[in-house]
Design brief:
Elements: H1 2-20, H2 123-141, H3 145-158, H4 165-178, H5 183-188, H6 192-202, H7 205-215, H8 219-222, H9 228-237, H10 241-251, H11 255-260, H12 264-274, H13 277-285, H14 290-294, H15 306-313, H16 317-334, H17 340-352, H18 355-369, H19 381-387, H20 395-398, H21 403-415, H22 418-427, H23 432-436, H24 441-451, H25 455-467, H26 470-473, H27 480-487, H28 497-503, H29 534-544, H30 547-550, H31 554-567, H32 581-589, H33 594-604, H34 606-611, H35 615-623, H36 635-650, H37 666-678, H38 680-691, H39 703-712, H40 716-731, H41 745-755
Protein name: PUM-HD domain-containing protein
InterPro entries: ARM-like (IPR011989), ARM-type_fold (IPR016024), CPL_dom (IPR012959), PUM-HD (IPR033133), PUM3 (IPR040059), Pumilio_RNA-bd_rpt (IPR001313)
Keywords: Repeat, RNA-binding, Translation regulation
């Protein structure tokens, strides 16, 4: 019975579930029978008679759908067990909760299911199916998908190099016609932005103007988008002066926010390069103060530095520092230090910032300059292979394309700690060659050689690499600067006043200003020296030269100035190492073997160096032993160099190959003349090897300057050596001495203005 009860109960549950689904009428017991309900009519088989379903009101839901659970009707035998019938032998009743409609018959429940799509079997079918899915998704996601496909097809044709110009113009016109009234949507898409950029590149000026006028109101929005920023830069490249002026006017009030934006900063930098002097100042002044940001007329003032603007407009210095700090700190946090406009604002900020803010900016800037490349040792081998070709150079190297960037690098080296300097030197390990051949990078290396006391580290990373490329550096305009800095530090003959100003740059609030003290009055500083730069200092030295010397030869002026330099301590860097300069130079130049290698290079290429406009200065400094006699410990090697130069001069005029004789060449003759005046040892070797008994042959042309230098030498032994043979040539008029030059100081200044050099360099002009 128990088994029968379980079996009956399971059937009961099946019946109830079917009733709950609306398949049959609900059955009620006597206890749960509601009013108006009728008993089921029993048939011979114990089944209720099948009747047609009654029409129900469509607005009312039948109660049998969610009715109470009822017990099944009993058989005459008293058993609740029912006879099982297959489902296919009885007709299916329509659910009573469905709406009946005369116009639209209900779908039969036994209708066959839709046939599923054929699954792809071959790889080609898989690719086609995946392509269809992707196309459907793109079409649903992009409203202009069909337009993008058409524009891309035109773009593939117009960007070919072998296409004719007329055909390309037709394609450009067709593409612009398709993009009409949709330029903003096209410029914002990463697919069609390139198409529009190509149209601007190859289109006519009228078509460019149309695109510019359509997108001009949206430039600020497009400048902050990843792909549209390149289109904005292309439009600025092809814009007229009037259009550029309008763009700068639209930038007013938004420069600070765009500079801090990782994408928009590129547009500001591009506009900064295209701008003239006044427009650049307008961009910079907007970041100086909130007043300058709000009032456009204040940015039109014709003033130079930030200090002049503060004094002229009577701005509060504390508020200016606070406003600039709010702009600069986010830039350093995001690592935006590669742009020249950022370099300019940082240099101006450090000139007025107090000690706390200046130190904070320096400390945040140094880690950015010394960070390593993208590749990491902990990466997987496959990741290393992918990142090998896209190594990211450190920001310090990329900053060297501007003079302000150079100043920032020098300030970080001078005001950084020993650990910071060590990180910077290690960071440029793979970029020494690039820096040495760069205009501003060579000055950075010169600063490192003059400031950092850790000579072992500098020798290991910098000197060794310079030593392997000496044959290239001695002939390069920029590459020779680090060598000349070691041989003759901060010489005005080899460094311009602007270069010397960069090498002597410092943060006023982080260092105490040094004063030049004369040996004659050690307690009294020279007046006006603390406030002037290198150019003004050279002008002061020039004014101190007696008038009679100004009328004599240039070499006499140079000799007087060298004596003046010996009696006066020159301005040194505000922040330098603890070691003495001569000790540091000796460790870097002599102890590491750089000097010996340099002398060997000069011996091997003596003829080329003497004839070179740039190399002659290197071989001159090496031959005279450098400043302060730094190369005197290598006298034997210097003697070999002197003999090598004399052997080239001893060759006959017709037998020497490689051009003019070194005594008749313009550059080499003047270099040898200076060697005779400054190096008595070389003068003796040259006289005994070349000129003794043959001076009359070389008394004409450019070589006469070399011969006359023996009589003009400040050394008595050199004069006595050649006076007996040369004096008769002077008396007979064959040999002409330089004599006095009737060239006044004002005339020299006019010549300097014509040559576009500072007046401080006028005394080094050669006659």
């Amino acid at each position: 019975m128990a088994a029968a009860g379980k079996h009956s109960g399971s059937k009961k549950r099946k019946r109830e579930s079917a009733g709950a689904k609306g398949g049959t009428k609900p059955r009620f017991s006597k206890q749960t029978k509601p009013k108006g309900a009728k008993h089921f009519k029993k048939t011979a088989k114990g089944r209720p008679s099948k009747a047609k379903p009654a029409k129900t009101n469509q607005s009312e839901k039948p109660a049998s759908v969610h009715g109470a659970i009822t017990a099944p009707a009993r058989n005459p035998s008293g058993s609740t067990k029912r006879k099982w019938e297959p489902a296919g032998t009885r007709e299916r009743e329509k659910p009573r909760f469905l709406k009946q409609s005369n116009s639209r018959p209900l779908k039969s429940s036994n209708k066959a299911a839709p046939v599923p799509k054929k699954e792809p079997k071959t790889p080609r079918e898989h690719r086609l199916a995946a392509k269809e899915i992707v196309e459907a998704r793109k079409r649903k996601r992009r409203p202009n998908y069909n337009l993008e496909k058409e524009l891309v097809s035109l773009w593939e044709k117009m960007r070919c190099h072998n296409i004719e110009k007329e055909e390309r113009l037709k394609l450009v016109s067709e593409a612009l016609w398709m993009m009409s009234e949709k330029f903003l949507e096209v410029a914002s898409s990463h697919v069609t932005a390139r198409v529009l950029q190509t149209c601007v590149k190859y289109g006519s000026q009228e078509e460019r103007n149309v695109v510019y006028e359509e997108l001009q109101p949206h430039f600020l929005t497009l400048s902050q988008k990843k792909y549209a920023v390149h289109l904005v830069k292309k439009l600025l490249d092809t814009a007229s002066k009037k259009q550029l002026e309008g763009f700068f006017s639209s930038l007013h009030g938004h420069v600070s926010s765009l500079v801090r934006h990782t994408v928009g900063s590129a547009v500001v930098e591009h506009a900064y390069h295209l701008a003239n002097g006044s427009q650049r100042q307008r961009l910079l002044r907007e970041m100086y103060s909130s007043e300058l940001q709000l009032f456009k007329d204040l940015t039109l003032t014709n003033t130079g530095s930030l200090e002049d603007i503060i004094s002229k407009l009577k701005l509060q210095k504390s508020l200016v520092v606070q406003h600039m700090t709010s702009i600069i700190l986010p830039l350093l946090e995001k690592g935006i230090v590669d742009y020249s406009i950022v370099h300019a604002i940082l240099v101006e900020y450090l000139t007025i910032a107090d000690k706390f803010y200046a130190a904070e900016v320096i400390q945040q800037l140094i880690p950015l300059l010394s960070q390593q490349s993208v590749t990491d040792e902990s990466l997987h081998a496959s990741s290393k292979q992918k990142n090998k070709r896209r190594k990211k150079q450190i920001p310090l190297v990329s900053m060297m394309h501007t003079r302000d960037g150079l100043k920032l690098g020098i300030l970080c080296i001078k005001h950084g700690t020993a650990k910071d300097r060590k990180k910077i030197v290690k960071g440029i390990k793979d970029h020494v060659r690039k820096l040495a051949l760069d205009q501003y990078g060579s000055l950075l290396l010169s600063c490192i050689l003059s400031v950092i006391d850790d000579t072992k580290l500098v020798s290991k990373i910098i000197i060794r690499q310079l030593q392997t490329m000496l044959s290239e550096l001695v002939f390069d305009k920029n590459g020779r600067r680090p060598l000349l800095q070691l041989l003759h530090p901060q010489c005005h003959r080899y460094f311009t006043p602007d270069d010397l100003a960069c090498l002597n740059a410092s943060v006023p609030s982080l260092c105490t200003q040094e004063k030049v003290v004369s040996e004659d009055s050690p307690g009294k500083p020279l007046e006006g020296v603390a406030e002037v730069g290198p150019g003004k200092l050279l002008e002061g030295i020039l004014e101190a030269v007696p008038e009679e010397l100004l009328e004599t030869d240039t070499d006499a002026i140079m000799n007087h100035n060298s004596e003046h330099d010996d009696s006066t301590k020159t301005i040194q860097s505000a922040v330098c190492g603890k070691k003495e300069a001569i000790v540091r130079r000796n460790e870097l130049l002599v102890d590491n073997g750089l000097a010996e290698t340099l002398i060997g290079t000069c011996i091997d290429t003596a003829g080329e160096l003497l004839r070179s406009n740039l190399g002659k200065e290197v071989i001159f400094e090496v031959a005279v032993g450098g400043a302060d006699g730094i190369l005197n410990p290598l006298e034997d090697r210097l003697s070999d160099l002197h003999k090598a130069i004399a052997s080239l001069a001893a060759l006959p005029k017709t037998d020497e190959s490689g051009g003019d004789h070194i005594l008749e060449n313009f550059h080499s003759s003047r270099t040898i003349r200076k060697l005779v005046l400054d190096s008595p040892a070389f003068a003796e070797i040259l006289w005994k090897t070349v000129l003794e008994g043959k001076s009359e042959i070389w008394a004409q042309g450019h070589s006469c300057k070399v011969v006359s230098a023996f009589l003009e030498s400040p050394e008595a032994r050199v004069k006595n050596l050649a006076e007996r043979e040369l004096q008769p040539l002077v008396d007979s008029g064959v040999l002409k001495l330089s004599g006095k030059k009737e060239l006044s100081l004002g005339k020299k200044e006019e010549v300097c203005d014509y040559l576009n050099v500072g007046h401080s360099s006028c005394w080094i002009l050669e006659c």
